[in-house]
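Q: I'm building a small set of examples for a reading group on sequence design. Run inverse folding on the following structure and report the sequence directly after it, with nothing in between.
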């Protein structure tokens, strides 16, 4: 998913949009190496090595990847969307947020 996420971040640069990653593979050093290799520029957290980490537990994540799309008020609006569907729902929420300003 990294290439698509990277294009989404680039396309929405300068707009009120944030992508946050959570990773539970291996240790922190392994995560840092992967972030560097994949050129991840957005905030990404390590969650303790499995889906029992504090972030995954609080968000009821049972497996990775798990995608949650939140609106401008912080409410979860979509879950488990990817690809063109992810682009579409993000664009819809961006339009909605601009109208409510």
């Amino acid at each position: 998913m990294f290439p698509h996420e990277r294009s989404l971040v680039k396309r929405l640069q300068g707009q009120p949009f944030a992508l946050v990653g959570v990773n539970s593979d291996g240790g922190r050093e392994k995560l840092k190496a992967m972030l560097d290799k994949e050129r991840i520029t957005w905030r990404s957290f390590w969650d303790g090595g499995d889906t029992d980490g504090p972030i995954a537990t609080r968000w009821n994540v049972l497996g990775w990847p798990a995608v949650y799309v939140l609106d401008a008020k912080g409410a979860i609006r979509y879950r488990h969307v990817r690809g063109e569907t992810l682009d579409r729902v993000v664009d819809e929420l961006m339009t909605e947020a601009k109208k409510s300003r």
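Helices lie at 2-11, 28-37, 54-58, 83-99.
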